[in-house]
Amino acid sequence: MAVISVHNLTRRFGNFTAVDHISFDIEPGQVVGYLGPNGSGKTTTIRMLLGLIRPSEGEANVLGFDSASQSDLIRANTGYMSQKFALYNDLTARENLKFYAGVYGVRNGQRVDELLEQLGLDVIATMLVRTLSAGWRQRLSLAVAIVHHPKLLLLDEPTSGVDPTARRAFWDLIYSLVAEGITILVTTHYMDEAEYCSRVGILNFGKLLALDTPNNLKALLPGKMWEVFLEGKENEQADRLLPLLDVMGKTEGVIRASLAGDHLRILAKNAITRKELECRFKAEDIHNIRVESSIPVMEDTFMSLVSQ
């Protein structure tokens, strides 16, 4: 049985449709990423799954319970980590965790110590939360979300505002929880984080554009990816890339071209060859370039789906 089953779920706020007739199933033991920019409807979806707001249309079944009429049962068996850390700044890490254990009715005093050790929080257990870095607060919030042994974990942009090292460590923690049998739905606007998920849903303007494995989603690209590099002094390249971008924007067969740091990233129809791209630049008197084939990344898929 699916852990989450959603059918035509819709939420309107006046004339604004935040979530627009989405349908999907999440099976046990999966890490499903819900990928989209800010304002795409990710948090509204999470709030409907938890029964915090009612859908305007459609239905959601979570852990066998109806989200509209059995929200108390859902929240009792689900861990939720919101965008804002719901921690008490004037309590220590241990005191925060102990407090929330009590809120969830966890009477086993050893559970707090187990979580502090499991998530590597024992080294900051006696420190006040207000003194902790964003990475430590993030870990502590995760501990709070799983203190009651939930079957499902909903993480709403949990890595927003933390450094790349802390983000990678957090995903290691996520997979350790999956190994314990927890199913996880995580929202994010970081494209690279989608690569860590077993399945990814791409959301934009409230619509679920696709839901599949990262590899299957990248296979949806209507062409081939290329990268174009300029040979020369690094400090001159930023200005010199703009004419290249303009050339590609006017080239037949090029679907999309964009700046990517010190080079261009190009999606072109499959029939376009490296030699044709090189000749197009030379025809515009642009030389000293290097064109290389590239593998798709999740951002390529996202931009392609959104543009469609």
Automatic annotation (TrEMBL):
InterPro entries: AAA+_ATPase (IPR003593), ABC_transporter-like_ATP-bd (IPR003439), ABC_transporter-like_CS (IPR017871), P-loop_NTPase (IPR027417). It comes from the Bacteria. Coiled coil: none annotated. This is ABC transporter domain-containing protein. Pfam families: ABC_tran. Signal peptide: none annotated. The keyword Lipid biosynthesis does not apply. It comes from Leptolinea tardivitalis. Residues 4-230 form the ABC transporter domain. Keywords: ATP-binding, Nucleotide-binding. One of its GO terms (molecular function) is ATP hydrolysis activity.
